[in-house]
């Protein structure tokens, strides 16, 4: 979306089937992930490999999220099918990516990700789960060197206890708390109003990019009711321009527009085509 963007990326197995059948699969996935991180200069702040899905919290210094995710999922899927003598899709469609407001949600999201195994009832304590970034963060082991621990732990430096101990307390305090993802806007943005507002121009510019679904790219668009207020609907020229804008700029389908305005689909299609022809001159 933009250089230096933070993303919460999560991917599920096809039909909610397992994407890791044993620890060898998890080791292989971690190995592929580390190579992608190094090659594309991504920074990984948190991760968790569950049986049927995985979570990553990453920063992309360059606008190459789509490229990296295609490589990560594609290479791993090839390995998985070959290793287990399987065929077909490993993952359920494309990845899901949420742009994160780092100023307000960095710590909350890191905590949410490593608490997944606890909240799922797999383990009682986050340190008992081997396949998340938690053990690295609190200094139990150093098996995941690609995790950027310093960026997180600097927030927990104080005169009372080590940064790792303070982070441990922070995580445990969140076990009974709500998920920060409940604040996600339109399935794409996790952030406060100011952050969402700052992305409006970027979202408009990015509307043709492949990193997000059409629905996600228009998550901060105005409602169709606001685009077609009574004053606009009652003046044909204004209505036609609003139809064109709703379709081209904000991603509403011609059927959605026709249904809202109680017009024939062919009428809306003809208006869009006419306005497209005018825009060429």
What is the secondary structure topology, with strand pairs?
Elements: E1 5-12, H1 23-40, E2 43-49, E3 53-60, H2 65-83, E4 96-100, H3 102-114, H4 116-119, H5 134-137, H6 149-153, H7 163-173, E5 184-185, E6 189-190, H8 193-198, H9 200-205, H10 214-217, H11 224-227, H12 230-233, H13 236-248, H14 254-261, H15 265-279
Helix pairs in contact: 1-2, 13-15, 14-15
Kindly describe this structure:
The two termini are 31 Å apart. It is globular, with a radius of gyration of 23 Å. The model has no long low-confidence stretch (mean pLDDT 88). The chain folds into 2 domains: 5-197, Transposase IS200-like (Alpha-Beta Plaits, 2-Layer Sandwich), CATH 3.30.70.1290; 221-279. Helix 14 (254-261) crosses helix 15. A hairpin with a 3-residue loop joins strand 5 (184-185) and strand 6. The chain has 15 helices and 6 strands. The chain has a 6-stranded mixed β-sheet with strand order 2-3-1-4-6-5, sandwiched between helices. The chain is an alpha+beta fold.
């Amino acid at each position: 979306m933009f250089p230096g963007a933070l993303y919460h990326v999560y991917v599920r197995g096809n039909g909610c089937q397992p994407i890791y059948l044993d620890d060898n699969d998890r080791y292989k996935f971690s190995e592929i992930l580390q190579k992608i991180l190094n090659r594309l200069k991504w920074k990984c702040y948190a991760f968790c490999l569950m049986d049927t899905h995985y979570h990553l919290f990453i920063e992309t210094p360059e606008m190459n999220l789509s490229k990296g995710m295609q490589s990560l999922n594609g290479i791993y899927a090839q390995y998985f099918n070959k290793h287990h003598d399987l065929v077909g899709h490993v993952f359920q469609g494309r990845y899901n990516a949420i742009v994160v407001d780092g100023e307000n949600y960095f710590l909350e999201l890191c905590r949410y990700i490593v608490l997944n195994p606890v909240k799922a009832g797999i383990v009682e304590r986050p340190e008992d789960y081997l396949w998340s970034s938690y053990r690295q963060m609190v200094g139990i082991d150093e098996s995941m060197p690609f995790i950027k621990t310093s960026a997180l732990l600097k927030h927990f430096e104080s005169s009372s206890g080590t940064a790792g101990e303070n982070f441990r307390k922070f995580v445990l305090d969140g076990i009974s708390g709500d998920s920060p993802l409940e604040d996600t806007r339109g399935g794409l943005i996790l952030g406060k109003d100011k952050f969402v507002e700052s992305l409006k121009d970027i979202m408009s510019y990015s509307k043709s990019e492949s990193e997000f679904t059409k629905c996600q790219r228009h998550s901060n668009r105005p409602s169709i009711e606001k685009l077609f207020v009574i004053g606009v609907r009652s003046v044909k020229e204004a209505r036609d321009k609003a139809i064109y804008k709703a379709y081209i700029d904000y991603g509403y389908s011609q059927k959605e527009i026709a249904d809202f305005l109680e017009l024939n689909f062919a009428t809306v299609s003809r208006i869009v085509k006419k306005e497209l022809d005018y825009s060429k001159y």
